Amino acid sequence: MSTGTVSVSSGTALRWFGPLASLSPSDRSALLDRSTSLDEGIRQRTATIVARVRRDGDRALIELARELDGVSLESLEVPRKRCLAALDGLDRDVRAAMEHSLENIAAVHRAFLPTTMETSPEAGIVVGRRPDPHGSVGVYAPGGRAAYPSSLLMGAVPARVAGVPNVIVCSPPGRDGTPRDVVLAAAALAGVDRVFAVGGAGAIAAMAFGTATVPRVDRVVGPGNAYVAEAKLQVAGSVAIDSPAGPSELLVIADSTSDVEIVAREVIGQAEHDPRACVVAVVTHEETANELRSAILRSLPAQPRREIIEAALANAGAVLWANAIEDAVAFANAYAPEHLLLALDTAEDLLPIVRNAGTVFVGSTASVAFGDYMTGANHVLPTGGLARSYSGLSVLDFIRWTTYQRVDATAASRLAGPVAVFAEAEALPGHASAARAWSRREPKEASVG
């Protein structure tokens, strides 16, 4: 690149700053290849934890809590009365905000509920698909550097909307041996069935395989750190997952019409999640890029989570300028971010050509923070470039489809010959015989009931 990095007052830096067209192949690869599975250390440590939990169950979870969380657990399960007490003791304004969020999440996901569908490709044949809720779902609510009751609501509320009868939650224990009160309050508000003080990769393994205390579930959902994302990938052969949602990501497209102070706040807001968070802005003018860089650096000294933000900016932060808006969109589609903010006046025009993003925020007023908490859209989204292949969490993740088909006697007689020919072409005479049996039968009915 024409310029390397931009130092800030603490000695850390934005990792990339310069023209998009001048990215070297290695720089471009580093920006695009963000999967935590590329980190051999994370993969191996996660595999060890998953194997321990699968082998030793509750004992492994208790040992991991002591080793990783520094807490000695008396019980893995949090009593329901403890969750209800946390809800009763919740600050009134916080409770009102949670209830507002819950209502919007439920409303949005109810609107997206699928229904039974049937079609008739030809006379006498009916093929249908019926949505059936999973029997049980495990929701992971992150802890560690911060508590995320919002993530609990994003997982548990759509599951209930879908009709899942059993919803459990795992969240890391604090020093008192239970998750944060605000997380327990959210669990009570969402009406989950059971809560466990279990965090990290161990929690994912426990829900995937089951232990004496933690039940095995049909699907595991929820965001987390790099180890949680990796654990979900490693157990995906044994249990369904939503997507490998790891450290937070944001890509902003801006131009000379954009308010750089607003864009800087959005960049800071996502960078404060995690030192591994990835925050990138692509603008269409070098002057705007310089203004944005300055706005980001000016805001740092006043940030309570400054060290985390600076680590994220130094690791994967970028402000780049493109020759044209089409180049910025092309880069965004290749980057496939978790969050894509179109912070410019032509946002509506760009929306149809945006393809690969967990969720798109259209216009500067559509702050990513609104989507994180209150719009009702889900904030559990694919990261690491996997928005190319995965969608964000939705009510669809909590159902499976039962396919059924009817064939009446007239259609059976009509299908017998071509099916037998097809089966014999595949050297399956038993199939051919089963089909031909219907060619010798007189139809008893003319239509499917």
Describe it.
This protein is α/β, with parallel strands linked by helices and 449 residues long. It folds into 3 domains: 6-33 and 246-379, Nitrogenase molybdenum iron protein domain (Rossmann fold), CATH 3.40.50.1980; 40-115 and 132-245, Nitrogenase molybdenum iron protein domain (Rossmann fold, 3-Layer(aba) Sandwich); 408-440, no CATH class. It has helices at 25-32, 40-56, 58-69, 80-88, 92-111, 149-162, 181-190, 200-209, 226-235, 260-271, 286-299, 306-316, 325-335, 347-350, 368-373, 409-425, 429-436, and strands at residues 6-7, 13-14, 16-19, 77-78, 117-119, 125-133, 136-140, 166-170, 194-196, 219-221, 240-241, 249-254, 278-283, 317-321, 339-342, 359-362, 399-407. A 6-stranded parallel beta sheet has the order 3-14-13-12-15-16, with helices on both faces. It has a 6-stranded mixed beta sheet with strand order 4-9-8-7-10-11, with helices on both faces. Strands 5-6-17 form a 3-stranded antiparallel beta sheet. Helix 2 packs across helix 8 (200-209), helix 6 (149-162) packs parallel to helix 7 (181-190) and helix 10 (260-271) crosses helix 11. The longest helix is centred in the first third of the chain and has 20 residues, at 92-111. The model is unreliable at 1-12 and 445-449 (pLDDT under 50).
